[in-house]
Design brief:
Elements (H helix, E strand, L loop, with lengths): L2 E7 L6 H4 L2 H8 L3 E7 L12 E3 L7 E3 L1 H14 L6 E11 L2 H7 L4 E6 L4 E2 L1 H6 L3 E4 L9 H12 L9 H5 L18 E2 L2 E2 L9 H19 L7
Parallel strand pairs: 1-2, 1-6, 4-7, 5-6, 5-8
Antiparallel strand pairs: 3-4, 9-10
The structure holds adenine (ADE).
Length: 229
């Protein structure tokens, strides 16, 4: 099953280096993910291709206008004819991005990500054009592009077939509501720093118990908030 992510942005080239490497590249090469860019400036009707205007009510700051967003979305809809699109606005007001939110978003095969800019985006975009708002954290980015890259990365590695081993995604931090257990690899001893003996024992039951204990202990120490739910 192929997923499509359509990104509406005034900086499509900002995505080049991130999307041409690692997992996102693999997802595209395996034809499991198609990423399309729509430059909001291509859908403006003014000579300077402006997508923003001063805020009504004053107070300074520029606001991204609804028209270019509306027109760009209309183009995506035409390109997708009857296929259903799920429209996401990246914004600090959105639902915090978590592993479980990402899994829910992945139920939609055709996503649209709108990257806002300036002081904000005309509220009517939110109200009439968007299905869901997503935030990547409680801080303000200068635009939605970096947030969109984060979201695409999180989604790409959850697409079945992208990451080699299913278990390597399922055992990660947050997937079971816990942080991941510690990992070690060769050499067994570096300086005088050693790999825990239990991992070399070959006793799978013991290893599994140790890992669960470590994951729980780490979570209690570092992220108590995860245990409260
Ligand atoms: N745009 C600006 N800040 C953002 C954030 N924290 N998350 C998502 N989009 C944003």
């Amino acid at each position: 099953m192929r997923y499509t992510i359509n990104i509406l942005t005034i900086f499509p080239q900002a995505f080049d280096s991130v999307f041409s490497q690692s997992i996102i590249r693999i997802a595209q090469e395996k034809n499991l993910l198609k990423i399309n860019f729509y430059n909001l400036r291509d859908y403006t009707r003014n000579k300077h291709r402006k997508v923003d205007a001063p805020s009504y009510g004053g107070g300074g700051g520029m606001v991204m206008q609804i028209e270019p967003v509306y027109r760009t979305l209309a183009k995506v809809k035409r390109d997708f004819s009857s296929r259903k699109l799920y429209v996401i606005l990246l914004s600090p007001q959105g639902k915090p991005l978590t592993q479980s939110l990402a899994r829910r978003l992945l139920r939609h095969k055709n996503l649209v990500l709108i990257c806002g800019h300036y002081e904000g985006i005309d509220e009517r975009v939110r109200k009439y054009l968007v299905d869901e708002e997503v935030s990547i954290g409680d801080y303000i980015l200068s635009g939605g592009e970096i947030a969109a890259m984060v979201l695409v990365d999180v989604l790409a590695r959850l697409i079945p077939g992208v990451v080699g081993k299913k278990s390597s995604v399922e055992n990660e931090s947050f997937e079971k509501g816990l942080l991941d257990w510690p990992h070690y690899t060769r050499p067994q001893r570096f300086k005088n720093w050693r790999v825990p003996q239990v991992l070399l024992s070959g006793n799978h039951k013991k290893i599994s118990e140790w890992r669960k204990g470590q994951a729980l202990g780490k979570t209690k120490r570092l992220r108590k908030d995860l245990l409260r739910t």
